[in-house]
Structures
1.
Amino acid sequence: MARLKLPVPPVPPALKPRPARPGTGNGRVGPLDQAAEAGITVVDWIDERTSLSGGLRWMLFRKVPKGTNWFYTLGSAAMFAFLSQAVTGVFLAMYYDPSPTHAYESIRYVTNEAFLGEFVRGMHKWGSTVMVILVFLHMGRTFFWGAYKYPRELNWVIGVVLLIMTMTMSFTGYLLPFDQRSYWATIVGVNINGTGPLIGPYLSDFLRAGPEFGATTLSRFYAIHMMLVPGLIAALIGAHLYLVAKLGTTAPPWIKAKPDERLTESEV
Ligand code: HEM
């Protein structure tokens, strides 16, 4: 069957340069006109050199199935929770010291003394729970809509990896305040990992950076938490969204497809 290729949507009117009004001079542009058009000029300048706008329109101006509702916003909500974690995390990293002797004190400083520190730390701490809840709700939405079926299986698999990565973030972040609770909770968590089949013992050795919880365990958790996993999550979200734009979203299961009249006529 020949594949129907949708044309790239047209440039939205807001992005088109405004036509000159009658009587505004023969091509003469004043500073106010220039200021009003500045945004468009910059976008045009970049687009002329990169041709990125076609891709952006392909991504953003998509047709969505009939029946699309608020449940379809859960994926984007999870993505914004991730972005908020990334931004607040950068500010926390400006003060955090991942050494066993200074970690607790640096977190105490952020909470009690740094400007807006308690607020930013609170956003990051509560935001982590919000992100986990949103990812689970989004997974539930795609499951109950049957969105994991052909041709979206790969996107489901990428989603499963994103879920594991999100939980890895929670697990590695929990140790960082380095108080009694986070220390003992991490020992329990690493031991649970060690009971996994085949790779379990290797995984727990890798997490601890050796057979015992030692001085390098904290910096290992910190590196995983702020570099390795966020990088992976960002790349996987990119792949996830590419597939969403390419395949389109699934219609709700209660929406019945309208039979193609031309087909019915030729069959009769
Ligand atoms: C960081 C985590 C995640 C982010 C940021 C994310 C983001 C998104 C976004 C923005 C969409 C577009 C439409 C929608 O929201 O439904 C989407 C679709 C989808 N996601 Fe996720 N997602 C994540 C995790 C997951 C997980 C854990 C699964 C399942 C295991 C999953 C499976 C899917 C599937 C199958 C679709 C296609 C939905 C459809 O065709 O209707 N995603 N995702």
2.
Amino acid sequence: MNTRHQRRKWRAACRRLIKRGNLYHYEVQHDPWCGIYEGHPCHCDPVRVLRDDSGRALARIEGAGFYDPMEMVTFGAPERKVKA
Ligand SMILES: [Zn+2]
């Protein structure tokens, strides 16, 4: 599985699982050597876990590539139709 495929799979899982009005935890498990611990952008390939408000894992994915702090802003949100 390549990164792009995994990212798409993760996005689809988040869209399916995240419901308006509920609380979720988005856990990003970086490698110990990742730049994020030294004030740099992520350059590892973290495991991502979506948990419900009691901590139960709803989805988990590996191989989705670098973590971008903005990714959940769009990953969790349904596609919006923009009126012209
Ligand atoms: Zn990282």
